[in-house]
Design goal:
mainly beta; six-stranded mixed beta sheet; four-stranded antiparallel beta sheet
Length: about 120
């Protein structure tokens, strides 16, 4: 049974940093893209960043490019999101997911497994 567990969220002031972690179990996703999405209250889930099977395969939403860094530890089946220079508009529940369905890496419909999410709140 696939399980995804996100952690590392919290409350931080604008300009601060957080590091999110995603631990996957039940199946190896080393050959798949894995991504971070986020969802703010009343809004649709939106793409944040993705990391492919190679360290050269990364993609970022324009809103986080230059501030967030995605990384993976393939041996541990884990993924990370280093978030710097946080802004109040980054406030959301952050989810990790492996892209196991067809489609573009930025489309949430291409993902079938989701964790419970971790809350990130950035105060102004």
């Amino acid at each position: 049974q696939v399980q995804l567990v996100e952690s590392g969220g919290g409350l931080v002031q604008a300009g601060g940093s957080l590091r999110l972690s995603c631990a996957a179990s039940g199946r190896s996703f080393s050959n798949y893209f894995m991504a971070w999405f986020r969802q703010a209250p009343g809004k649709e889930r939106e793409f944040v960043a993705a990391h492919g099977p190679s360290d050269f395969d990364t993609d970022y939403a324009d809103s986080v490019k230059g501030r967030f860094t995605i990384s993976r530890n393939y041996d541990k089946n884990t993924m990370y999101l280093q978030m710097n220079s946080l802004k109040p508009e980054d406030t959301a529940v952050y989810y990790c997911a492996p892209q196991v369905l067809s489609g573009t890496v930025r489309d949430a419909r291409a993902y079938d497994y989701w964790g419970q999410g971790t809350q990130v709140t950035v105060s102004s």
